[in-house]
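Sample intake sheet
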Amino acid sequence: MAQDAGAAPRTRTQTRNRAAILEAGLEVFSEKGFRGATLEEIARRARLSKPNLLYYYPSKEAVHLALLENLLDAWLAPLVALDPAGDPVEEVLLYLRRKLALSRDYPRESRLFAGEILRGAPHLGPVLGGRLATLVADKAAVLRGWMDQGRLARLPPEHLIFSIWALTQHYADFDVQVRAVLGAGRDPYAEAGPFLETLFRRLLAP
């Protein structure tokens, strides 16, 4: 989260402690959910006292909100990058790859986001109905334009985007289930990438 304008510069210790709190918060929230997380556990994992943690973040909600704010730009970036001037099928497949890579590289962040949605999005509700909805509408218009030109199969564009979210984030949000079914020695993401690309390439073909 950006430092407030006009605020005194943070010391190295303050920067380090904030980073430690957010890292610990990410671990605890992704493992235990918002309701199961406690400030005591976050402080313990950050190797700080609870009063020291409260100096930086006045509540569990404040830690959670800071994590969500830090996550949002990264989560939206792959959809922002969908290029109207690119090849339609390849642009959608590139979006798919980027979303799968996010799930692979940031599984805790994916579970944090999923947990917020399952709670009714108390922190992100305005963003979902505002910034996210606007972005999806803009990219759905791009997809619809490609469909009108005969360059993509005719599909409901918003639901095409939803399906990419579902089929990529599943591997992070249900990681334990996926790995239990596949068994030891198999890489879910190495297998998922070619499968999803084949699936969507066939689906998108005009």
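Comment: The chain has two domains: 12-58, 65-204. The chain is about 75% helix and 0% strand.
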